[in-house]
User: What shape does this take?
Amino acid sequence: MKHHAKSIRRKFVLKKANTDPGGVHPSDTVMLEDRDPGRNAMLHRRCQSSPGSRHGGTKRCVHNGVTLRLWSHGLQVAASTEAGRVRLELKHRNVLCAWDDTMCENKLLPAPTARLRLRLWAPSDKLAFRAMNADRRVMEYFPAQLSAAESDAFVDRIYEHQEVHGFSLWAVELRATSTFIGFTGLAVPRWDLPFTPCVEIGWRLAHDYWGQGYATEAAKAALAFGFDELTLEEIVSFTAISNDRSRRVMQRLGMLHCENEDFYHPALPHMHPLARHVLYRLTRDAWKWNEAGK
Assistant: This one.
C-alpha cells in the first residue's frame, strides 16, 4: 500500500479561547483545533492542559483563525510572546516548528552525512542554482536549460512543496565549507503519471561535484528520512532511459528497475529522444533488508 504525502501532515486552526479582541495578554489561551472533527476531543484535551503538563504545556498567545500545518503525533506545544507578536513552537523529537504570526515552517530534515548536509533553501542559493540550470552538462537529460526566471520559479515551488508536505528537494551543501552544490530530496510528482500518487527521490548537482559519490551519499540520507521519519511504504525514481549516470545512482541505492512500467513522459512528444523514461522502485521492507545486510 502506498503512503502518499497527504496522509503525513494534518491541518489545524489556531483559535483564541477568550473573546477579547485586543492584543497579546499573559492570561490568554490558544487552542489547536484539528479540521478532522473526529480528533478534536483529543487535541482539545492536549492543548488546554494545565501549566507544566507534559502533553502540551501552557498556551500564552493570541491569534484568530490562522491555519497551521503541523505534525499530528508526538506534539509538545509551548508558546510565548515577544513585543506583541505571537510565537508558537511545536516539537517532535528533534524537530522545531516555529510559527510567527502567519507561517509554520516544518524544519524536520535528514541527518547530516559524513560530508554533506541536506537543508532548507536559502535565498543566496538561487544564484548558484541559476548557473547549474544554465549548464548544458547538468541539463543534458532535460528538455532545455532554464532561464534565470525559470530557475528561481523552480526554487519557489520547492519552498511551497516543503510548506505543504513537510519534505522537499533539499539544498545540499558540503559540511566542510558550507558550499551549495545542488539538491537532493523527496517530492510528490507534479505530473499525472501511470504510477502516481507516489513520492519520488531526485537529485541534481553542479558539474564540479560529479564523480565523487555525493549524489549517492545525499540520496541515502533522503531515503532514510523517507522511510524512518515519514514512514513511507515506497519511494520511486525515474529518468530518461538514456541517463546512465542517474540510473547507476538508483542501482547503488538498491532500487529495482520495473521494466514493464517504463513510460513516456507526458511533458514531451512521444518522438522526443528524452520522452521514454525508466521507473525504479524501492519498498520500505527492501530498504530495511539492504540496510541490515551492510
